[in-house]
């Protein structure tokens, strides 16, 4: 072998590597062709008569089907395995030295359980969403599953073998919200309003203007039925909603666009600082956050498709200088793929980098390394970002629910899942007080329940406080300084019921049935019944309604009566009823008894057996069901009983009749052997009061005729 190396294939770090070696002597004597490999040896390392020992073999990485080679497998910011499909993919910031080369699935392919890259649509669907986990027995999950269950002790029902239902449940620390998604427990709360807004339980009943466009119209308040009310956010007093949907002071409604006040390619904006699009060339292709502003700035801005250049002139976007960035910023061809904190609010928080679909990258300016964007949009050194205050820490939180305060800590907010933002919030166990300071929750004054309010002097409340006080004139005592007792009292229009809850005044006189009480309950979950007890319901958060419900320990039966839960086991099937003494039922119970004489035996006290019997005019057929008497039919081929005999076709058989059948057995104890299921035999037995004559022809004779 003259100068030619024997090369082959090697497997290096799970990458199929084809080692290509060339004959430099032959290569030097042959001119290059169009088919020359791009992986050629450099001249400094080529083999030559002057340099016979130097060789350079070139490794051309080749990957299995549907895969491609990557110089850094860790920073491929898209799903790589079937189980990652539709999940957010974190992208760590890595130095070049920490990269691992290897093969990854091509775009549109994911690695299956066998390690092969297959088309995404061929992946076995993941049955559970993010923040969910699969359970083989969803009924046996002994923790809250829904936001509506939060804070309520959860029972751990006993689930019989074979009754388990498989399915997806929320992971530990997550609860199912109104939209069906599992969200962190802290996000199970109710909507809050934006700046200059306030919550109203009946937006139709607000007797004042709500929009700038309504100012010249007369105000009117029509009669609104409670059932027609819709709750929601409305503008505060002396504020109106402008054309952008923001609640602004009434006097700000007067400023309107005047024609010809803006330069060419500009237009007037009543709230320029709320526009969620680039306005200057330096912001071109930059991802901008949409701020919630408290005071709008009215001024001329560039029209859509135009940006303001360094001279202050609005020019078409394509005429902006290329890649011009402000101080401490740098241009990025793909701003979505910058996997590091970009804002002061993200400092020290987790950074997630979404999967980037090829062709969707946006170029723009980002803060340089070790710089972060402050609240004014300027990139400043990291150490200049504001720090958190006393008893605060940086967390990634959503805008809804609002941060817990002394005033809202007992309010349940209903919020849709939304992106979180890193910001300073109170540490666990601390809440904001009226001074916006984080204090221990137990130091909050006056925690009150639903329909209650805090009073600095409960004795001085000059109105009825309890349902029992309703209609009785109330005295207003004089309370000496220092004698006042702080506490919670019912809000105006509410009185305290016997269960301690404040209810609307008109419900004080409402009477409930036996074993019932008045409570404020949600429509879901439904009231516990014998039929649905032990079932876990998935319910969205909703307002409660006062109604009569079963007291604790009682459940609704089929007759809509509240009974003790243990009495549910006494419930019978269709066309049946419960009897405390089945032997004392003086009517036929089985189709086989139809048309036969009926006897009512005397029952010794203590011998009664409770159980289910057929209702009047119903008989039990051979399948064990109670059917109307007229539906009892004699089957073809059925044995016809002789005189004083009947056919035993139900639970008792010839070998399992626990009553005397022969005269010789009369007044004797009769053993009842255990009969294996399916071994019963059908046949004729003597009617009640008759015995088989075992001294004669074994016919059934009256008891008095037995010798």
Short description:
Helices cover 1% and strands 23% of the residues.
Descriptive labels:
43 strands, three-stranded antiparallel sheet, mainly beta, 23% strand, 1 helix, two-stranded antiparallel sheet, Laminin, extended
**What structural class results from the helix and strand content?**
mainly beta
CATH superfamily name of the domain at 325-385?
A: Laminin
Could you estimate the helical fraction of the residues in percent? Answer: under 10%
Oligomer: single chain
Mean pLDDT: 73
Give start-end ranges of low-pLDDT stretches. Answer: 1-56, 635-640, 647-657
**Dominant shape:** extended
- Care to count the β-strands? 43
Compute the gyration radius: what is it?
A: 42 Å
Query: Order of strands across the widest beta sheet?
Result: 1-2-3
Distance between the termini: 123 Å
- Percent of residues in beta strands: 15-25%
SS summary, helix count: 1
CATH arch. level architecture of the domain at 325-385: Ribbon
Largest sheet: 3 strands, antiparallel
Task: Write the CATH fold name of the domain at 325-385.
Answer: Laminin
Supply the CATH class of the domain at 325-385.
Mainly Beta
GO molecular function: peptidase inhibitor activity
Protein name: TIL domain-containing protein
Organism: Heliothis virescens
Signal peptide: 1-28
């Amino acid at each position: 072998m003259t100068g030619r190396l024997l090369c082959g294939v090697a497997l290096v770090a799970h990458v199929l590597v084809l080692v290509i070696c060339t004959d430099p002597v032959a290569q030097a004597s042959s001119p290059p062709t169009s088919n020359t490999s791009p992986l050629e040896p450099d001249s400094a390392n080529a083999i030559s008569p002057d340099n016979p020992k130097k060789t350079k073999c070139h490794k051309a990485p080749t990957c299995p089907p549907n895969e491609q080679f990557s110089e850094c497998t860790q920073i491929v910011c898209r799903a790589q395995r079937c189980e990652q499909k539709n999940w957010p993919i974190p992208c760590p910031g890595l130095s070049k030295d920490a990269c691992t080369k290897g093969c990854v699935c091509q775009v549109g392919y994911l690695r299956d359980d066998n390690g092969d890259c297959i088309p995404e649509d061929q992946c076995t669907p993941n049955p559970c969403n993010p923040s969910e986990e699969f359970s083989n027995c969803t009924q046996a999950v002994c923790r809250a599953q829904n936001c509506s269950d939060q804070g309520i002790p959860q029972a751990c029902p006993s689930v019989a073998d074979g009754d388990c239902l498989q399915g997806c449940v929320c992971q530990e620390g997550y609860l199912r919200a109104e939209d069906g998604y599992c969200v962190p427990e802290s996000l199970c709360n109710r909507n809050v309003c934006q700046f200059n807004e306030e919550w109203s339980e009946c937006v139709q009943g607000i007797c004042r203007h709500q929009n700038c466009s309504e100012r010249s119209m007369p105000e009117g308040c029509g009669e609104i039925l409670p059932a027609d009310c819709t709750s929601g956010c409305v503008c505060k007093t002396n504020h109106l909603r402008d054309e952008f949907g923001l609640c602004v002071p009434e006097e700000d409604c007067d400023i309107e666009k005047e024609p010809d006040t803006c330069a060419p390619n500009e237009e007037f904006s009543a709230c320029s600082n709320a526009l969620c699009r680039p306005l200057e060339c330096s912001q071109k292709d930059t991802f901008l956050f949409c701020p919630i502003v408290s005071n709008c700035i009215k001024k001329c801005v560039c029209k859509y498709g135009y940006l303001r250049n360094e001279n202050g002139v609005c020019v078409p976007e394509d005429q902006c200088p290329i890649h011009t960035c402000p101080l401490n910023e740098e241009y990025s061809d793909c701003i979505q793929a910058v996997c590091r904190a970009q804002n002061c609010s993200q400092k020290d928080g987790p950074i997630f980098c979404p999967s980037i679909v090829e062709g969707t990258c946006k170029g723009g300016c980002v803060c340089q390394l070790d710089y972060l964007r402050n609240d004014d949009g300027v990139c400043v050194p990291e150490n200049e970002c504001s720090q958190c205050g006393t008893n605060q820490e940086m967390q990634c939180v959503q805008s809804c629910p609002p941060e817990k305060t002394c005033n809202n800590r007992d309010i349940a907010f209903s919020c849709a899942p939304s992106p979180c933002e890193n910001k300073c919030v109170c540490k666990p166990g601390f809440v904001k007080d009226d001074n916006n300071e984080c204090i221990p929750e137990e130091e909050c004054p006056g925690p009150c329940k639903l329909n209650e309010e805090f009073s600095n002097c409960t004795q001085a409340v000059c109105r009825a406080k309890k349902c029992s006080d309703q209609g009785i004139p109330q005295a207003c005592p004089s309370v000496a300084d220092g004698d006042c007792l702080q506490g919670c009292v019912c809000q105006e229009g509410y009185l305290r019921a016997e269960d301690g809850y404040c209810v609307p005044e008109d419900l004080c006189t409402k009477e409930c049935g036996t074993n019932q009480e008045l409570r404020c309950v949600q429509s879901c979950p439904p009231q516990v019944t014998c039929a649905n007890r032990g079932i876990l319901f998935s319910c969205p958060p909703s307002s409660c309604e006062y109604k009569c419900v079963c007291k604790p320990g009682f459940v609704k039966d089929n007759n809509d009566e509240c009974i003790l839960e243990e009495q549910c086991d006494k419930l019978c099937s269709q066309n049946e009823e419960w009897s405390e003494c089945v032997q004392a039922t003086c009517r036929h119970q089985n189709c086989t008894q139809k048309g036969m004489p009926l006897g009512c035996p005397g029952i010794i006290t203590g011998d009664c057996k409770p159980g289910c019997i057929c209702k009047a005019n119903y008989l039990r057929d051979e399948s064990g069901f109670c059917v109307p008497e007229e539906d009892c039919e004699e089957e073809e081929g059925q044995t016809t009983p002789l005189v004083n005999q009947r056919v035993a076709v139900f639970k008792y058989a010839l070998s399992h009749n626990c009553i005397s059948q022969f005269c010789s057995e009369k007044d004797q104890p009769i053993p009842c052997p255990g009969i294996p299921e399916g071994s019963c035999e059908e046949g004729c037995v003597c009617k009640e009061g008759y015995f088989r004559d075992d001294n004669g022809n074994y016919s059934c004779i009256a008891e008095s005729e037995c010798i």
